[in-house]
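hey so i finally got around to running the thing on that chain from the lab meeting. sorry it took forever, my laptop kept dying and i had to restart like 3 times. anyway pasting the input first so we r on the same page abt which one it is
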Amino acid sequence: MKGFPFKLMLALLLIDVAVMVCNKVTELNSAVGDNFYGNLVFQPTFWLGLLLSLLQLWTWTSILARTRLSLAYPVASLSYPLTMLAAQCFFAEKLSLLVWLGGALITFGVAIVGSASEEKREAKRTVQERFE
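ok and heres what got predicted. didnt touch it at all, straight out
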């Protein structure tokens, strides 16, 4: 495995947020009338979100081909606060300090778990090197 794919990860984060924004815009536009699901297919943001979801999957699998899941996933969790920021900017959602704190806890919690598994991997590697 090569170095960490920063550009792909940045692209993934942007695509993650874009998919969520497309989904929200689709919901807002489809909520009009009685036929919510029937209205979905006529929403350009529905199709854009669907295409971006495929790009999201391709980007994620490309990242996993280049780095460890235990490293990639904590970085990917940055999409939580970024999506919250997008909700505040694009949809004027009012997010309380408690909501921001919750998003930060999720992000930091995943980062801690990811770094803990990296520490275990390093310790295991060190032990293996001693016996070689």
